[in-house]
Amino acid sequence: VAITNTRSPVRATARTGSWSWLGLAPFASFLALFFLLPTGALLFNAFRRAGGGYGLQNLRASLSGAYLTGLEHSIKVSAIDAVLAAVLGTILAQVIVSSGSSYLRRLVNSAAAVLANFGGLPLAFLFVAAIGNAGVLTAQLSRLGISLSGDLHLDLYGISGVEFVYLYFLIPLMVLVITPALEGLRPSWQEAAENLGATRRQYWRLVAAPVLAPSLFGSTALLFCSSFSAYATAEALTNGTLSLTSVQIGAVLSGNVLTGQENVGAALALDMIIVVVPLTLVYVLMERRTARWLR
Amino acid sequence: VTRSRKPSTMLTVGVAVLAASLAGCAASTTNATSSGTSAPSASAATSAAGFGGMNALVTAAKKEGQLNVITLPRDWANYGELMDGFTAKYGVKITDANPDGSSADEITAIKTLRSQSRAPDVVDVGQAFALSGTAEGLYAPYKVATWAQIPTELKDASGNWFNDYGGYVSIGCDTGKVSTCPKTIAELNNPAYKGKVALNGDPTKANAAFSAVWATALAKGGSLDNIQPGITYFSTLKKGGIYVPVQATAATIESGETPIVLDWDYLNTAKTDALKAKNRTYTVTVPTDGQYAGYYAQAISKYAPHPAAARLWEEYLYSTTGQNGFIKGYARPAELAAMQANNSVDAALASTLPVVSGTPKFPTDAQTTTAKGVVTQMWASAVG
User: Fold this and answer.
1) Mutating which of B247, B369, B383 best tests the A interface, going by the most A Cβ atoms within 10 A?
2) Which chain B residue shows the shortest CA-CA distance from A159?
3) Strands B293-301 and B139-140
4) Are B5 and A232 in contact (CB under 8 A)?
5) DSSP string computed for A11-38
6) Measured between CA atoms, how close is A119 to chain B, in angstroms?
7) CB B326 within 8 A of CB B340
8) What backbone torsions phi and psi does residue B198 show, to the nearest 5 degrees?
9) Mean pLDDT for the stretch of residues A39-49
10) How many CB atoms lie under 10 A from the CB of residue A188?
11) A197: buried, middle or exposed (CB in 10 Å: 19+, 13-18, 0-12)?
């Protein structure tokens, strides 16, 4: 059929082709208006000097002193959290997938979808009320003789606290993005491996891991980006004592103290883009590889 | 105005990018020619006389029938009652955009919304934004009828901005959680206050927190030229576990997480009422060793879509009713001293203000710029 009919579909495509771009127009204009234009304006502002003219002044400022420390902290917090959440999220997702209960799976997926989007000041206060100095859990634990900061080295109002709180939305996010990949591992592959004499361990190492790897890498990159751009929670917990690039952008763009630093804010945002773009590419490429096996 | 952070969700990089570029777009169009939407006479009036007197101003404002304000929370400095009072008195409807926004948001709105009917008519900004907005030519000069009653250091000589209300950095303290409340900044460095002292925000972002650091500097050997001792003192407090860097809010005070809060006296005092309703006592003291005052400023947008209503609003805020109205919100109105002298102040209300001795000194623009630079670079590394 395909051979005898090759010509007519081509002609049909050509005929509708002249109008089909119209369907894409809303998306294209959305992309132009809310992505390309802002990115262009951002680039423009990052290189525009406060006194007039163009130069690298803003970028240099954004990569020195407190701003450089901020970028280092941002990358550190995001990397640690991405790896932790990827490991814990994958384990949780695998437990749920292998349980075989569709009810449990739906329940966890809905919960994860909600929790992955919970953030900001409410999230910060949730943890303050639970494990702050006067928190409910803190009081219970101290009755048992356990101190969160002393014994567990968890300082809610420092870098370890921010990393801990971020896991609250990163682990559910990992569950959401990795579950389809885990579900794509066909039982028949494991059965085939076992028939050929593979141990369970060998199956995971030689079959499942290579198939899952792209998905795992990609998801970890996504978690990194999510943590990298998080903002309000960290600010509420540390009041600027922990410098993070996203918080610093907030201070120069919508604060009540700093004026005339908008261009440094644009340069900081550009720094973030430079960090994030390669990771996004990793995610896209990995997704493409994943799609080859898991569909 | 300052206000709290909104319970915003996580800011994605995309939003950060968008926000950055929107601010940029705004800046890049600053020099474009404006197109005012109303009669040039109202927009150019620099006093009620420009309309032909107060009655004519009222008539013109009533004809406009609408006033756009921005970032005025109803529970801040009694703005809710003031807005209702204005509408009741003059029949001019008020739209309050983005009540929890910041001063930077107000400036952005003036720049990006101009020539639109929903643009802000008047703003209530922190001092830094009063000065930067004047430098950028965003404000229309205006002098209210009681102009002479505003102290010289609380207004721009040509009328671009004029302070409306302010207060002092104060120490709020929950007596149920703290047995002996600190009365001075020096007393804060006491192991008894471990895990109890907090600020209302990030000093690089929230004016209340920035001012608290400056008040601390004044108490610990610093000056208006030198904010460093304040940062050093907070570093000491942090190392001793006394300063907790969580953002103090009504919720953290109520939960007992932050029983001692350095904040503007009018914000701390406003919290006493809410806690009193729960049978708790929250005291507010202006520390004698670090008296630092800060004022907000009114300014009329040069591009105000309702220029007469904007000017009438200023006349209302600087009337006896308006100024006493600020006191009801525990803020100190700009004309307080003059009103005390001519007995137009509501004495019962004034007695609710925390006691202060002496007259405040205000930093110059250059001193403020230097201090901000030091705090931006040093805060995280010294206190973190």
Assistant:
1) B247
2) B384
3) antiparallel
4) yes
5) HHHHHHHHHHHHHHHHHHHHHIIIIIHH
6) 5
7) no
8) -140, 165
9) 90
10) 8
11) exposed
Q: Which residues of A touch B128 (CB under 8 A)?
A: 256-259
Give the containing element (helix H, strand E) for B75. Answer: none
User: Each residue of A185-224: pLDDT tens digit?
Assistant: 888 998 999 999 999 999 999 989 888 988 899 899 999 9
Residues shown for chain B: 384
- CA distance to partner chain A, nearest, from residue B12 (Å): 5
- The tens digit of pLDDT for each residue in B172-186 reads 999 999 999 999 999
Distance CA B122, CA B138 (A): 11
B303's tokens:
């591009």
Q: In one letter, which amino acid is B168?
A: Y
CB A173, CB B262: distance < 8 Å: no
What gap in Å lies between CA B112 and CA B97, rounded to an integer?
14
Per the DSSP assignment, residues forming a β-bridge with B293 are B168
Cα(B383)–Cα(B245) distance, rounded to whole angstroms? 9
SS3 state of residue B300:
strand
Q: What gap in Å lies between CA B361 and CA B359, rounded to an integer?
A: 7
ipTM of the complex model: 0.80
- How far apart are alpha carbons A211 and A218 in whole angstroms? 13
Alpha helix ranges (H) inside chain A: 7-31, 37-47, 57-62, 65-99, 102-115, 120-131, 136-143, 148-151, 159-184, 187-195, 200-203, 209-229, 232-238, 245-254, 262-293
Nearest to A257 among B20, B195, B205 (CB): B205
Choose, out of B205, B214, B227, B255, the residue to mutate when testing the contact with A (most A CBs < 10 Å).
Answer: B205
How confident is the model over B121-130, as a mean pLDDT? 93
Q: Residue A11: its pLDDT value, please? A: 47
Helix axes A245-254, B103-113, angle to 10 degrees: 60
At B231, the amino acid letter reads: I
Q: Tens of pLDDT along B145-176?
A: 999 999 999 999 999 999 999 999 999 999 99
Cβ neighbours, 10 Å, residue B276: 11
Token pair of B356, please?
A: 């202060």
Report the alpha-carbon distance of residue A63 to residue A252 in Å, rounded.
15
The rounded distance, in Å, linking the Cα atoms of A225 and A230 is: 9
Which residue, A62, A35, A59, is CA-closest to A47? A59
Length of chain A as a residue count: 295
B213 Cβ partners below 8 Å, 6+ apart?
B199, B203, B227, B230, B231, B234, B375, B379
Short-list B97, B94, B127, CA closest to B112: B97
Q: Which of B376, B305, B333 is nearest to B128 (CA)?
A: B376
Per-window interface: B 95-154 vs A, CB < 8 A: 101-105, 126, 128-129, 131-132
